[in-house]
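Record 1 of the preview.
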Amino acid sequence: MLTLVGELNTSFGLSSIDYDFIQFEKRFPKYDNVQALFEQQVEATPHGEALVFEGQRLSYLELDQRANQLAHYLRDAGVVEKDLVAVCLPRSLDLVVALYGIIKAGAAYVPLDPSLPRDRLSYILDDTKAPIVLTTSELQDRFSHGYGRVLCIDTEQPRIDDCATDRLSLNISSDDLMYVIYTSGSTGQPKGVANAHKGVINRLLWMQDQYSLNNVDRVLQKTPFSFDVSVWEFFWPLFTGATLVLAKPEGHKDANYLNRLIRKESISTLHFVPSMLAVFLQQGDAQACQTLKRVFCSGEALSVGLQNQFFQQLNIPLYNLYGPTEAAIDVSHWECRQTSTQVSVPIGKPIANVKLYVLDQCMNPVPVGVPGELYIAGIALAREYLGNKALTEKSFIEHEVVENHPERLYKTGDLVRYLNDGNIEYLGRLDHQVKLRGLRIELGEIESSIEQQHDIEECVVLVQGDGVEQRLIAYVVHSSPELGSAELKVALKARLPDYMIPSAFVALPAIPVTSNGKVDRKELLKLKVEFCSQQEFVPPRNETEEVLASLWGDVLKLDAIGVKDNFFDLGGHSLLATQVVSRVKEAFQVELPLSVLFENQTIENMAIHILEQEAKTVDMDIMAQLLAELDDLDGADLQSMLDDE
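->
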């Protein structure tokens, strides 16, 4: 765990730091709620293209009317101002309509990822007391009774279509909640971060002032809506006259698909977490995405190496944004430089109307260059952790950084320092929260879930590796010699999202500790971790399986892989899966969606799929050859052939 420097001179004050380091003030037009931004644009460009998804398109007016109909429907179903409405929908036009319809009805939305385990869905619904869950008939059985009404968009659509298309007249304040997003919690359960309209409005207006979208821009929406980056993806383009293009469900994991979609839909603007940006660049052909004007990164640290790799392939701006879920998406920004000599990529300076303080352990400002903890103040702060007063008071504190000016501060847990020019450099965490492939994870929540399993006495979870090679490793002490990784993974999948399931479990007689009795994490990371198959080894039996085994071995950095071994049991994850799919496409010259590997997780099954695809390709080639030969025949030749038959 990183620690702060020792106690600083408490007489040190803000006078030593340029006030511009801390805050950038900007007066924006006043809006009561986020939908007012969108509705203003509807009036300006009613027939402009608002949404595109898999060949379907909606104009601004059509989206507005469909969202208004859903808002009327929700009010008729009993939704009132300040209610929370849960949404469990795949990425689609219906999802966007649902988000806009909910806030137009005066409620706030609670995103539920359809891939979440039932236990986690139940916990969130119980915690929010949401009176309505919007989903589809296909997903309906994921919700048990007792958590409000479950309404299926597809079966309810005729009733929604009968509702009025005019806007409801409601008094929705900027202080009202807009959404509640659940993040990993250190106590073993996720926590709901409740954000109001005002913070989002400020964030969106700042972003437009800074980066200026217009009606020729096309923005890609690919972030899962249970993560807060999706908020600006959904709401920024649609108050600027731009077009929002939705990636297909799970498409955000497939770099090759994203490359094709960017070119097909002439995307100008999109976001990557750095680890996915690395995969996107590694797949090659990024230069073919010639319509791109700007790329945003956030969610985890952006390395100098990856920044340089970006500029070697793309001559467009790259922006590094920073912000926790507890502060309306992002609170700082930095434009990356192609000729930079810096040893790290800064997180930059504050966005408009947000203050960033770097404080020591005594809550005093630190000088330039001295590490301290980052605290956030201003309009962006979330209201609370839903229903958790104790945690809210622990993380959101009242403090006078400036004498006689008490402020509400959010304690980020991030260790940072001011650079000489006032930009902020991120140094690491002060606790055991991690970012893995852009996903925020409290290691304590995984440890708690593992320790609740039978025969587990103690557990420590760490992140091993760098970049795309990062994996979660669980070190466990247990009393059962028969307890295996497979059984633990099955048990954890009922409680945790897939991205929080450790790639490997290391059994130990005891957890090592330091001389002062704390867990010795450095010692744990020295232990060799082997990703073992749960299957008896079966070597490749044909050329296709041999090629696949070689490809898997290169990506997973393993020597011997059997055809019945599971890719994910061997340490694979979504980003490595993207690399495998790209190499398979090159080796076999077949189109292979990323989903194929998730559906065929062994070499044996994947080889069967590839052989089937090759057979289809051969059949089509033969058919094309026959048709070409027939085209060369005149009428007399064709009649002669028929007579011969």
